[in-house]
């Protein structure tokens, strides 16, 4: 082998190997200090792309779970308010049962009516005040289609929380819808006998207050007759439920002279619906008074039962939606665990393997340094030839 002074090939090889092993050690230090196997694209270009996609999925799932929990909170707030509305309606129905006795005095009926009226007003207040932050969730501002919840990490993965409208008008509209009433609000005055519970309310008000069904309709539901009865209180349909007028069905009591000559025809129009037997002449008979009073009581009982059913239907839907969102959160959490495990195998540093690699490279570095030192001494051999 030739002996050169200007070019020390052995030293150059030693430098090359020492540089390579130093680079590998630096890479090991970076991986061990960061805990990540991929710190730049050069570490694993394909792995970086895969791990980033998995990171996108994980962050999306975590946010989706928080969104779903927000939806559960909305449902819980609405369901709690509806629970109190149910309690109030149950008490109102109890008052109606109590008022079913004709043994009560006018003062007794007034006391019943005052509490009945107050509970109706409180229920409307609850519906109007219940909110998630500043977002009203139980009145006319609540969307019929519900509140959309982005409960998944990808496009198209949404759920819905439907809180509904618990205002009195909307609840009565729901009663009419459940009964299959299809007429518009004008039907309440002209065809009340086909308008279900709301039609009976008009008839009860008419006979208790000795007025026509048109007057009764105006008193209970206002004079605007647009829109379907089943859409009362929603879809922008005009219509109200006059609480004070509704309470008169409980408070008022027909007397033998209630049916005056000027209103005999108006009373006759509802006679069949009310179930009054015989002819209504100048005043009611005792038997007819019992029939009128019994009809008014039955009508209010049916109305209160209908309201309870409507509220319970909303609560049942909210309960089902809460359970669905809770299941979604559990599924998202499980997916986060599994996807994180997959990403970990791609991205995270295997400390056992990396420390072993670091130790190997440290030994090689020491050997390379020693060999380089010896290689640097090779040109000295040429001097011995000159001596």
TrEMBL record:
Residues 302-386 form the Flagellin C-terminal domain. It comes from the Bacteria. One of its GO terms (molecular function) is structural molecule activity. It is found in: Secreted; Bacterial flagellum. Keywords: Bacterial flagellum, Secreted. Its main location: secreted. Pfam families: Flagellin_C, Flagellin_N. GO terms for cellular component: bacterial-type flagellum; extracellular region. Residues 5-140 form the Flagellin N-terminal domain. InterPro entries: Flagellin (IPR001492), Flagellin_C (IPR046358), Flagellin_C_sub2 (IPR042187), Flagellin_N (IPR001029). Belongs to the bacterial flagellin family. Flagellin is the subunit protein which polymerizes to form the filaments of bacterial flagella. This is Flagellin.
